[in-house]
Structure formats: structure tokens, C-alpha cells
Fold this sequence. Notes:
Layout: H1 2-17, E1 20-23, E2 28-30, E3 34-40, E4 45-48, E5 51-53, E6 62-68, E7 72-80, E8 83-91, E9 100-101, E10 103-104, E11 117-119, E12 125-127, H2 138-144, E13 163-164, H3 174-178
Amino acid sequence: MRGLAVLFLAALLSAEDAGKIMRPADKAAMPSGQVDIVATAPAGKLELDGKAIVAEKPFPNVLHLSVQAAAGEHSLALIWEGGRKDIHFFVGPNPPAGYQRFRQHPPVAEVQCTQCHELSSRGRFRFKNDSCFDCHQKDSFVKVHTHEPTLLAECGLCHNAHGSTVKAHLLYPKETACRQCHN
């Protein structure tokens, strides 16, 4: 019976990790109402302030759209079978306590998903190899990081490639980021 409970818990945890809202970040503050949304989930659907919104699907299980949001606080929900993720963001001046300025990445609106992403031979959505260095210089990378660029093939282990409320688009504080690989 215990083995069945472990399997159920593992399935539940993987179902929760199946969906992600990559942009905007939770508790993001944006100066204008134009909000670019990027999310991923199997057969996912989005709701803004409790109302369904329709997104384009540039890749399997990937949702993308740009919406004009009124000034104020908003909730964004990503819903899929077996899971749900909710975030909150604020549009306009003077965000409430706890909200931080969102730094969108890439900062250029004309960048298409396919500039950085591709489908693998198994049909999975992924970063292209070295696509970060199409825009970022390897010389400046080595000045900031303690490892060579070839060792850190997955920039997404530490950085949110879609934007963040944290400097350098970090997912974690530096100490936590280092522990992703180092004990």
C-alpha cells in the first residue's frame, strides 16, 4: 500500500510541475497595460481575472498572447488537467507593497520564439544550443560567471529567459543557483 501512495504522490508532483507561467513573473509590476504572456502546460488554458482568454499556440503545449490590461492588480491562472498555477501582477504607477518592476527579456518585441527555441527530435520544446550567445557576448559572460560558457550549456537553470523581477533575470539568489550543481 505504501508503494502505491508513493506512486500517487510522484504523479501528483509531476502534474503540478507540468505547467509554468514564464511571463509575467508573480508579483510583477508593469508600467503600461500591454502585457505579454508566455505559459506552458499540456492542453493548458489561461484565465485573466477569472475570465478565459485565448492564446496562440506557437509550439505544442505553449501558450502566447499579448493583452491590454487596465491599471490595477490582476490575477492570471494557467489551468490544465490535474493542475493549476496562479500569479498576480500589477499594471500602472505606484504598485502595492511586495510588487517589483518586471524586466522583460528579450527586451525587443520583434524577437520570435523560434530565435531561441526549437522542437527536439522527440517533439519537445527546448532552447537551441548556444542561442543565448546569438545576442550575448561570450567575453562578458566569462567576466560575470565563474565557469566557461561550454560548461553552463543550460542558461535556464539559473536565469528566466522570458523576464524577471530580479536583477539579471535570476531564478534564485546566487547562493541557491550555485547549489543547483554544487553540494
